Amino acid sequence: xxxxxxxxxxxxxxxxxxxxxxxxxxxxxxxIAMYGEPALPPDxxxxxxxxxxxxxxxxxxxxxxxxxxxxxxxxxxxxxxxxLRFLAYESLMGRSLDEPFTLYGLLAxxxxxxxxxxxxxxxxxEEARFSDGTPVTVEDVIWSYETLGTQGHGRYRGxxxxxxxxxxxxxxxxxxxxxxxxxxxxxxxGMRPILKKAQWEGKNxxxxxxxxxxxxTAPYVIDxxxxxxxxxxKRNPDYWGVDVPFxxxxxxxxxxxxxxxxxxxxxxxxxxxxxxTSHRETNSAKWEQQFGFPRVTNGDVIKSxxxxxxxxxxxxxxxxxxxxxxxxxRVREALIQxxxxxxxxxxxxxGNQPRITSYFSNSVLGMGHDAAEGKVLELLxxxxxxxxxxxxxxxxxxxxxGSERNRAGIVKAQExxxxxxxxxxxxxxxxxxxxxxxxxxxxxxGSSEVLAILNIYTQALERIGVxxxxxxxxxxxxxxxxxxxxFDMTYTTRGLSLSPGNEQLSYxxxxxxxTEGSRNIAGIEMPAIDAMVQEMLTxxxxxxxxxxxxxxxxxxxxxxYVVPLWYSPVSRLxxxxxxxxxxxxxxxxxxxxxLPDVWxxxx
Length: 603
Hints:
alpha+beta; four-stranded mixed beta sheet; 18 helices; 27% helix; globular; disordered N terminus
């Protein structure tokens, strides 16, 4: 695997950053790195994975399964095209896809973190403009942060509660002071979307749907849309930041169109017919077997495999531990044992996909599977009494012999359930109170691959007297039930970055478990998790930070909250031959900020 922290042309700068292990900001800077200095100098021309001479023009169209009823991706209510959050809005700083925990100036020309780390000050670029031509002001920034932190999506609220004050310190400067020790906050303050305050006067921001198109500063503006069918973004010819180093060579495609489909099959057929210009394929068997259609064989479509060094995240079937039947870790482990990964992987993927064995698989942040040692052990020891077996001793997922019977897994599952007080009566796994171990699995309609997995899994469960039904529902109902935790088990996927931080509390923190609409799907309540995230946020060195992430990873994996599936160390992207990208691929690979951002069209 390529090293994330030592890339060509950056080794010296990044080595220095790792050795320093502290933020050093005695004066305003062009960028910020959580440990050491940014790899790129103040006079950098463009990001290393961008073609600064990319030509303007062309059009791309991507597909998405589902629908939408709002164009505001910053509020809790409604369904929004996910790409809008990344393509149609800008922040004070921009994230480099090649440097974890590193930001460079975008709307802000400089950032200044206090020596103690308890405040951060930004200076806006004088030329920064909204799409209507009006200047971006400090008032817009403060209003955006306060509004998002109080009325916006839940992902913005946690960090806003850690801000003691937001004040204007000059015509173009704004300062945020914090009320907690949290090394990541300075970076988070640089990553909030900036909206136009005047647009929302007298309007209900939290309820905005399709009638109000938010005005922003981004290279793209919403040009046209039809509810539930498509959204068209056009490049703003008067975009203010075309020569800003962070933007140089990016967002050069004239139109980005998002088309919506009822299911994945219809979307794939649209791509085959030429209605879409690109298609991401997650199924390796399909990639090998079903991409021989005419547009591929005649060269109009190119199949690209783009490697990356980002974590796998977690994808699988999450058990809602708010339900009594999933409270006992032995029950959860039994359901993992019954999942015949090797057989299913061979059946659906030709055996090509590696299994997720860590929430941070495929990265330097992934945990070890033997007994914990060193700093990781030290962090876990403080919480030993509250940890689930395997956290410190080491935890590994079961490996079957690949046969359909999975006899060893079935036997182990039955043993674990017996230990937990369950036994088979009249062919049904039942507890002492006579309650059967039956449950439903919530799936969004149109998820054909997920349904294929569940068809095999539910049959395996029947062999241990567990009867699971598959509950399919449309996108709106699915979202509502997930937000209210109205499910037993559900398919879930949670992408994780190379710079995990505060967002981890919203994924698996104790408070989030009790908050409807949070992303703690499994209802995890482990004080040790909250403690590990705090260790991550206050770590004084890269070494301590990585140890805290590995400790968090152990707690999550040994918790057995999800039946893990597979991940891909490459992105499989089929695209029209006219679509071009630089040869150099950033550490994050094909990730938000990559396509269409650094691509261009050659007619």
